[in-house]
Amino acid sequence: MLTEIPTSDDFEVVGMQLLNVAWDAAATLVCDFDMLDYREVEKDPKNSAYWKAAKIQLSTGLTIAQQGSEFLLKARIAKAGVHFLLGVGKNKCTQEYTRKSRAFSEFRTVDAQDLIKIYRAVCDESLDNEFAQAYERLRRQRNSLIHSAGSRLSILASDLMCIVLSINQHLGREENWVKVRRDYLHSTPVALMNPETYADYRLVGEFGAVRDLLTSAQIKTYFAFDKRRRNYLCPCCVFGGVYGYDEREPRTAMLEPNKHDSETVWCFVCDETQNVERIACASLECKGNVLSYEWGRCLTCGTEASCASVPRPRS
Ligand SMILES: [Zn+2]
Ligand SMILES: [Zn+2]
Q1: Does residue 47 carry a pLDDT above 70?
Q2: Cα of 311 from ligand 2 centre, angstroms
């Protein structure tokens, strides 16, 4: 008899935690870099020492992301039947079930290289071909890292982030990665000791830096946010939350709908839509004309609206 059988949810919980740990490896490097006041400069040769020193964190993150994808594939397969994950022959397996009680973990499970094949044989939902190929590439990269300590594999923080985002998009239950991160950050040890501020502060700083780091196309694909449009400080995240206005100015909001006289902004981090006033900023250096209704601040430069001089016409 087979005992201690894991459920699909068990596999999924571990898979999502691994994805978060992999993302942490990249996000922490990006946030630290951001604290040093560097942005959008991942490929600049003068910063190569920083990223060279980060190779071990990023390589480890890649192996963890790959493990995460395995768990998430297993979660889908287990939903169809957990016995599909057992790597022993069917007859032998049946004999061993009946002979005595054996824990699931005592059996050999299927190889990672067979998961896509098994998924396609037993799961109803189809799996994107491009993703299947990316999974195979990732598995080989992981093997190369594990089996040759001096691997020449070089991975950027943005590459690792996109790997995690793609795995979550294809295999995660919650497609919105910001929501996944919010829940995860609120459950981390440091957040449990400091529940009021840590997770929300980190979330805004992290995605402000991610918005700067990833390309417009990547941000659009994974966060439905258009960074080619004029982006603004989010009143809720920056002025209304724990983040506070600082020189890093996370620009995570945009006018929605995208019209010249639009009176609301939407933020991809807090997912809030908020009213704005369309009057000129008080600062003469600022061309902004989108001010927070509630906080009385310019969402381009952060200047207080109470300092306003003569309103300029709408641009
Ligand atoms: Zn926000
Ligand atoms: Zn301004």
Answers
A1: yes
A2: 12
